[in-house]
């Protein structure tokens, strides 16, 4: 068996037309829409993501403000910058890029975001709404995982509701922005859900868990963690990992959490890295920014 490659770039092209139309509709209505991305330090993957978002937003006509703060920035200075963005009428969505320096409390930084501008649902209020099944925003990466899955099922002629009801979905990784939201979205689709992380790998039990999955979502942040022996024959594998790896020549490339070369001969379908979840994630974040602008406009009208 050779897996069908789920083409994220193709799906992103389809989604981009929808997002572009939404952005144009807001501009015609004279509504403010704008994305602010905040990077503290010089993490390579986060920097790549920030630059990529700037390109995508520009292509869609959405203003973007790329804020880069030194790695030695204090927590109080970061919180002050967040407060300023919360109050800025030209900013409808704020993305605080990770990782943050160890001396900065991630929990406090997330709680400092205005919930109505927290487009990744990391604020406690938004995270709770997501778990309850009534999200203000669906986090972009988790949303993209299921956007790709849903469209792949449609293209292959499989009934989505029936597929999820009879499927076991295992999520490898428990991050607040990807792993946990994926668990919530899978549960909302009535799938059987299981969560594991790197500790299962250290204990030697990772394969026991992952081989039981009909759908395997991998967001552990470890290059090549999942190999053929970890995958059930005919499983659908969604690779969320983005890991910088330097080869012998010194060139740095980005690879996934899944060993594509071995898993492609075991899975039914598989996303590549790059070109899988990433292109859809970028667009979904812009879509959330647009939706935030629309809701903020409603709030302002109601307050008048």
TrEMBL record:
Occurrences of domain Tetrahydrofolate dehydrogenase/cyclohydrolase NAD(P)-binding (ranges): 164-295
Annotated metabolic or biological route of this protein: One-carbon metabolism; tetrahydrofolate interconversion
One GO BP: tetrahydrofolate interconversion
Record's keyword terms, sorted: Amino-acid biosynthesis, Histidine biosynthesis, Hydrolase, Methionine biosynthesis, Multifunctional enzyme, NADP, One-carbon metabolism, Oxidoreductase, Purine biosynthesis
Binding site for NADP(+): 173-175, 242
EC code: 1.5.1.5, 3.5.4.9
GO MF terms held by the record: methenyltetrahydrofolate cyclohydrolase activity; methylenetetrahydrofolate dehydrogenase (NADP+) activity
Superkingdom to which the source organism belongs: Bacteria
InterPro entries: Aminoacid_DH-like_N_sf, NAD(P)-bd_dom_sf, THF_DH/CycHdrlase, THF_DH/CycHdrlase_cat_dom, THF_DH/CycHdrlase_NAD-bd_dom
Catalytic activity: (6R)-5,10-methenyltetrahydrofolate + H2O = (6R)-10-formyltetrahydrofolate + H(+); (6R)-5,10-methylene-5,6,7,8-tetrahydrofolate + NADP(+) = (6R)-5,10-methenyltetrahydrofolate + NADPH
Residues annotated as domain Tetrahydrofolate dehydrogenase/cyclohydrolase catalytic: 6-120
SUPFAM superfamilies: Aminoacid dehydrogenase-like, N-terminal domain (SSF53223), NAD(P)-binding Rossmann-fold domains (SSF51735)
GO cellular component, one term: cytosol
Positions in coiled-coil regions: none
Quaternary structure annotation from Swiss-Prot or TrEMBL: Homodimer.
Family: Belongs to the tetrahydrofolate dehydrogenase/cyclohydrolase family.
Free-text function comment from the UniProt entry: Catalyzes the oxidation of 5,10-methylenetetrahydrofolate to 5,10-methenyltetrahydrofolate and then the hydrolysis of 5,10-methenyltetrahydrofolate to 10-formyltetrahydrofolate.
Name by which UniProt lists this protein: Bifunctional protein FolD
The organism of origin for this protein: Actinomadura meyerae
Gene for this chain: folD
């Amino acid at each position: 068996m050779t897996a069908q490659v789920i083409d994220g770039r193709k799906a992103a092209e389809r989604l981009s037309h929808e997002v572009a139309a939404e952005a144009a509709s807001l501009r015609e209505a004279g509504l403010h829409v704008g994305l602010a991305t905040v990077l503290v330090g010089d993490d390579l993957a986060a920097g790549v993501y920030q630059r990529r978002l700037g390109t995508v937003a520009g292509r869609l006509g959405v203003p973007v403000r790329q804020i880069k703060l030194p790695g030695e920035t204090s927590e109080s200075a970061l919180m002050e910058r967040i407060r300023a963005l919360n109050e800025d009428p030209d900013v409808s969505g704020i993305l605080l890029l990770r990782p943050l320096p160890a001396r900065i409390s991630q929990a406090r930084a997330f709680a400092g975001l205005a919930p109505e501008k927290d487009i990744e649902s990391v604020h406690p209020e938004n995270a709770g709404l997501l778990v309850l099944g009534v999200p203000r925003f669906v986090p972009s990466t988790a949303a993209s995982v299921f956007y790709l899955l849903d469209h792949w099922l449609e293209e292959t002629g499989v009934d989505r509701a029936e597929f999820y009801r009879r499927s076991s979905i295992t999520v490898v990784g428990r991050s607040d922005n990807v792993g946990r939201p994926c668990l919530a979205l899978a549960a909302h689709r009535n799938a059987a859900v299981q969560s594991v992380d790197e500790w299962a790998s250290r204990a030697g039990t990772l394969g026991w868990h992952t081989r039981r999955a009909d759908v395997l979502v991998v967001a552990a942040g470890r290059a090549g963690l999942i190999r053929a022996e970890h995958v059930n024959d005919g499983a659908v594998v969604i690779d969320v990992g983005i890991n910088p790896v330097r080869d012998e020549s010194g060139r740095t490339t980005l690879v996934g959490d899944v060993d594509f070369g071995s898993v492609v001969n075991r899975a039914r379908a598989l996303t590549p890295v790059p070109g899988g979840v990433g292109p859809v994630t970028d667009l979904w974040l812009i879509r959330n920014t647009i939706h935030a602008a629309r809701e903020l406009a409603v709030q302002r009208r109601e307050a008048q």
